[in-house]
């Protein structure tokens, strides 16, 4: 960014622009309040939109005072950053693309430009030109700051949701005394696999579980990586003294595993979670029998 | 430690005899030399005393490297030759993950959650180690 060069020629205009912004603060804010960007975000009252507009104008004036019209990190912007982010995210949540939000931000420029030209009616054309350029740059930087903040907000949201997903997606359920189960749902990547393994092993210790069931009914596909992870989890659980059963292998997945030539020989498998539970209960010496005396179809 | 006769005190790691079972408790860091010493002592003790089971409690061990993993596997193998079953009890989750990541899943080793569970396991008449691959009696 040719910051210094850019600051060079219109340098003399920044005080005038700052001056103009302060003088016309009220009018600019009033006009901005009618723009879709402010109008749609501050729906409660027009005054609120005007107040927000004033805050932005003040920030711009401060940045112009500092002579850092091209610098998105200028101290003046820090006060309105949160507000700009709020506006940006509100618009993108309303279904607007980044380009549309950007063009709404650029729509803030014409009203201010018109005011500036009206203000400098008597001034020499050279001064009008430099002032207009400075203002245009200043608003360009404002747009950049707003977009930057909105995008980083989005990134933070994604990070937060990824963490939540990790927590939500790996509950360990106690099915019986000494039997815990993890229903796996969704695609397993290495990060999730690690979390699954750790939570399962920790709950084996906490619950004194002799059996752990990994139910993969909700896992859409099993590739060699997932199979390897399953085998690792089973081996780790076995080292701790718990037996691991993998359940919920659907026919298509069973076929895939065989086609891939994966050896799950060291893993005890059952077709459904119910079968796995029945197996574990049997191993613990508990069997489920029909309570009704006439229920003759015992297995 | 008072219950065990002096010759069962092996190097840095004491070996306790409880009836038919030898109990070894590993604590903290175990040096390679001490681990090897333990391996030898255990072999001799099993041969002398004709026990039928060995329980190694490693709940106090926070770090297991590939060497100790191999020593454990070898202890189990040699005890098997001397007609005694070995159970490793109380492995921590972090240790289990480390061993698996090292590629040491120790397939021949019997394991139990606690020392109590290990003694219970040795009481049962099952001879083959739980390998998981077998389809036992279907429920």
TrEMBL record, chain A:
<feature type="domain" description="STAS">
    <location>
        <begin position="169"/>
        <end position="280"/>
    </location>
</feature>
<keyword id="KW-0597">Phosphoprotein</keyword>
<protein>
    <submittedName>
        <fullName>STAS domain-containing protein</fullName>
    </submittedName>
</protein>
<dbReference type="Pfam" id="PF01740">
    <property type="entry name" value="STAS"/>
</dbReference>
<dbReference type="InterPro" id="IPR036513">
    <property type="entry name" value="STAS_dom_sf"/>
</dbReference>
<dbReference type="InterPro" id="IPR051932">
    <property type="entry name" value="Bact_StressResp_Reg"/>
</dbReference>
<dbReference type="InterPro" id="IPR002645">
    <property type="entry name" value="STAS_dom"/>
</dbReference>
């Amino acid at each position: 960014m040719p910051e210094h060069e850019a600051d060079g020629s219109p340098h003399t205009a920044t005080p005038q622009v700052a001056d103009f912004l302060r003088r016309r603060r009220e009018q600019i804010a009033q006009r901005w309040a009618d723009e879709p960007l402010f109008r749609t975000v501050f729906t409660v009252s027009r005054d609120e939109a005007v107040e927000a507009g004033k805050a932005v104008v003040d920030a711009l004036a401060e940045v112009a005072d500092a002579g850092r019209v091209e610098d998105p990190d200028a101290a003046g912007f820090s006060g309105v950053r949160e507000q700009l982010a709020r506006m940006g995210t509100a618009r993108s949540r309303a279904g607007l693309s980044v380009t549309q939000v950007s063009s709404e931000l650029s729509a803030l420029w014409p009203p201010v430009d018109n005011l500036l030209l009206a203000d400098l009616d008597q001034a020499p054309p050279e001064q009008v030109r430099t002032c207009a350029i400075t203002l245009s740059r200043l608003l360009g930087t404002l747009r950049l700051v707003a977009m930057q903040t909105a995008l980083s907000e989005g990134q933070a949201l994604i990070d937060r949701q990824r963490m939540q997903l990790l927590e939500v997606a790996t509950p360990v359920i106690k099915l019986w005394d000494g039997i815990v189960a993890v229903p796996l749902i969704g695609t397993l990547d290495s990060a999730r696999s690690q979390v699954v393994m750790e939570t399962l092993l920790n709950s084996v210790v906490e619950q004194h579980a002799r059996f752990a069931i990994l139910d993969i009914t909700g896992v859409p596909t099993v590739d060699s990586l997932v199979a390897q992870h399953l085998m690792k989890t089973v081996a780790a659980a076995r080292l701790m003294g718990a037996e691991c059963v993998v359940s919920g292998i659907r026919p298509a997945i069973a076929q895939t595993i065989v086609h891939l030539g994966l050896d799950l020989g060291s893993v005890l498998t059952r077709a459904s979670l119910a079968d796995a539970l029945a197996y574990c209960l049997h191993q613990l010496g508990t069997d489920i029998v029909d309570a009704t005396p006439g229920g003759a179809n015992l297995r | 430690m008072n219950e065990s006769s002096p010759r069962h005190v092996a190097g840095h790691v004491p070996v306790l005899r409880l009836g038919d079972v030898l109990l070894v408790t590993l604590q903290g860091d175990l040096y390679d030399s001490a681990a090897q010493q333990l391996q030898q002592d255990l072999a001799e003790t099993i041969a002398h005393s004709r026990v039928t089971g060995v329980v190694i409690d490693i709940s106090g061990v926070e770090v297991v490297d590939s060497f100790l993993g191999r020593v454990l596997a070898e202890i189990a193998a040699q005890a098997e030759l001397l007609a005694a079953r070995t159970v490793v009890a109380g492995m921590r989750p972090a240790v289990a993950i480390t061993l698996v990541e090292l590629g040491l899943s120790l397939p021949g080793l019997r394991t139990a959650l606690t020392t109590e569970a290990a003694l219970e396991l040795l009481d049962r008449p099952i001879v083959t180690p739980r390998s998981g691959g077998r389809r036992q009696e279907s429920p």
